[in-house]
Amino acid sequence: MSIENRMRDVILAKEAKSKDLETKTGIDRDRWNNIRKTNPTAKVRAEEVEALTKEYPEYAYWITTGLEIPEVGQISPMTETTRQNLLKVG
């Protein structure tokens, strides 16, 4: 999975609106919309990676590497969803 896809997964999982990301990060909402698309037209830039990992630090390692370290709280959105579902069942 590409870093663009991982960034998109985080944005969609957190239901982050491009307008809100623009306000929080100072990065234009059109850039966030391009990342949000299924087939992004633009490659992500370092400033966007930095901004998203500051906003969602629990996903920083996964966004940048595609790997997780759950014992130190570095997870993917899929792991977070699984945890939440298990809490609902348990």
Verbal overview:
The chain is an all-alpha fold and 90 residues long. The chain has a single domain (3-89), classed as Orthogonal Bundle (434 Repressor (Amino-terminal Domain)). Helices cover 62% and strands 0% of the residues. It is built from six helices and no strands. It has helices at residues 3-13, 18-25, 29-36, 46-55, 60-65, 77-89. It is globular, with a radius of gyration of 13 Å.
Q: Which tags fit this structure?
A:
434 Repressor (Amino-terminal Domain); 6 helices; 90 residues; globular; mainly alpha
Structural class: mainly alpha
Instruction: Give the tally of structural domains.
Output: 1
The main sheet comes to:
none
The number of helical segments is: 6
Task: Give a brief description.
The protein has 90 residues and is an all-alpha fold. It has helices at residues 3-13, 18-25, 29-36, 46-55, 60-65, 77-89.
Layout of strands and helices, then pairs:
Elements: H1 3-13, H2 18-25, H3 29-36, H4 46-55, H5 60-65, H6 77-89
Helix pairs in contact: 2-3
